[in-house]
Write a structure and sequence with these properties.
single chain; 17 helices
């Protein structure tokens, strides 16, 4: 424990949990579209998030939290179950088999080789792109940036929700600029308290827009373990299901790799060789989480980009992940308490962390265009496609093509050719 600031690590764990806890209710809300019981998915989400986060802290010793990933839960519900017309039991089997393959790739260092194949300059783009992605998620969660029929996105009208959010954002920014300890947590607490006058804690509607607010749902809710071991292992091995397994494998692979690279690059969590710290152990935990997801009854688990909030609060060790993981567990019984912390309260923390994660762009060689253009594409396409994987894939492909056109084959590794080939195969499946 020498050199570890326990108070800082605990605070970082609390911060990470507060910005990640939305998954406890959002994941079941999405997966119930696959015909799965809401409370059953909620129980599975809590258990897999807690176990893998604690495992990350103990085994990989990194301040990274894991939970079922956004995007993959939608793919599970709408593409596999609804689109392919299969049962959710078969879909869970696909998740499990993809997790088994992840695990084997991790044990035999294939995933580590993929990570090391990411050019240093592209890593800076991934870190900044994730920062922009987190910022977009924050503004979207707050209802400040909304869908617009003419311009794709736009600003929502000012109302009591957005004004409360803006006050919370500005106060949180001041706390951060003044380097107040626990600035992000204080911002979340303050914004939650500011939401009291608009009826957040007792229901009702927004005072200006008339939008219904989530009301107080009580204190206790018993866990539902009905989804445990309900996966269809044999049904998921049908030939028709192989594209689904491959897509889960490829997407989760690059989501986890790019998140680990981006978050740890921004947090300067590197080993003596300058690579992300304990990367093999981190990837093994990530792979275990995906396989476990299929067993307990939820969509694939992955490293969460919200881990950046805890790292920015000073989290540097596995204690941060352990604390966050332990905080998930009570919500098997106390899930209604989450209604006390609105999205407008956690949104300022996400946005400010997005600003923090822009620092690596200072290291990009902007005057060397064969580096700068792929980095720029990677950085911008992550938020614009709402997918870390898509940003990284197009960064890879543009890097490969531009370097080949300029005759700079020394900047290309054999694994990079393999990755680009797999990306093209994925497009074929789409």
């Amino acid at each position: 424990m020498s050199g570890i600031d326990l108070k800082t690590e605990v605070l970082a764990g609390v911060t990470t949990f507060l910005t990640s806890m939305y998954i406890i209710v959002v994941n079941p809300a999405i997966l119930q579209n696959a015909g799965m019981p809401f409370d059953g998915v909620l129980t599975a989400t809590v258990l897999v998030s807690a176990f893998t986060s604690i495992m990350m802290g103990i085994y990989a010793k990194n301040p990274i939290v894991l939970a079922p990933g956004m995007g993959m839960n939608a793919f599970f519900a709408f593409t596999i179950v609804q689109g392919m017309g299969v049962s959710w039991q078969i879909a869970l089997g696909c998740v499990f088999w993809a997790g088994v393959i992840f695990f084997l790739l991790s044990v035999f260092n294939v995933r580590e080789q993929i990570l090391l194949a990411i050019p240093k300059q592209l890593r800076y783009g991934v870190a900044a792109g994730i920062g922009l992605f987190i910022t977009l998620i924050g503004f979207k969660n707050a209802g400040f940036i909304v869908d617009h029929p003419e311009t794709l996105v736009g600003r929502s009208p000012l109302n009591s929700l957005t004004i409360t959010f803006l006050i919370g954002l500005m106060v949180s920014a001041i706390f951060v600029a003044k380097r107040i300890k626990g600035a992000l947590v204080l911002g979340i607490i303050l914004t939650t308290l500011l939401a009291i006058p608009i009826g957040r804690w007792w229901g009702g509607t927004d005072l200006v827009s008339g939008v219904p607010l989530i009301s107080w749902q009580g204190l206790l809710a018993m866990p539902n373990f009905s989804l445990f071991l309900q996966l269809d292992l044999l049904g998921s091995l049908q030939l028709i299901m192989l594209p689904a397994i491959f897509t889960i494998l490829f997407t989760d692979l690059f989501d986890s790799v790019s998140t680990l690279v981006g978050v740890m690059e921004a947090g300067d969590l590197r080993d003596e060789a300058g690579q992300p710290r304990n990367i093999k152990q981190s990837l093994i935990v990530d792979a275990t989480g995906t396989a476990l997801s299929g067993l307990v009854g939820t969509s694939p688990t992955t490293s969460f980009i919200e881990s950046a909030t805890g790292i920015e609060e000073g989290g540097r060790t596995g204690i941060t992940a352990i604390v966050a993981g332990l905080l998930f567990l009570p919500f098997m019984f106390l899930a209604p308490l989450l209604s006390m912390i609105p999205a407008i309260a956690t949104a300022p923390a996400l946005i400010l962390v997005g600003a923090f994660m822009m620092r690596p762009v200072l290291n990009v060689r902007w005057d060397q265009l064969d580096d700068a253009i792929p980095v720029f594409l990677c950085m911008t396409l992550i938020p614009l496609t709402f997918s870390i994987t898509q940003g990284l894939i197009w960064g890879f492909l543009s890097w490969l093509l531009i370097k080949l056109a300029l005759g700079k084959r020394q900047d290309l590794s054999p694994m990079l050719y393999v990755i680009c080939g797999l990306a093209i195969v994925t497009f074929a499946f789409e």
